[in-house]
Amino acid sequence: MLDALTVAVGVTALALAAWCGFAAYKDQPTKDWHFIGMAVVTVLAFAQLVVGIVRLAQGDEASEGTAIFVSYLIGSALAVPAAGFLSLAERTRWGSATVAAGAVVLAVLEVRLHDIWGG
Question: Are residues 21 and 99 in contact, defined by beta-carbon separation less than 8 angstroms?
């Protein structure tokens, strides 16, 4: 895996979590700007998914197993989009809190992906 990409995904996810957490604190639902932030984080997570699959296809192996690694890759790519979809159903401060929680989950998944790969 690319360490720089893993760090970039984790940092942007935590920034999104702080931003949406602040919106929830201010009693605001998710807004268009939040969805742009979610899109940026999601693009980075999908880039990591592609890089991970390419590395596996080139013959590299995760230290804790390919199935677990691919599962974590897919989960990390879908964490923020799932939270964003749920925030559309909950147009209150709890929608913003859901996105913040999803972004924190993504950051934790990034740490675990780094460990699984052999970091």
Answer: no
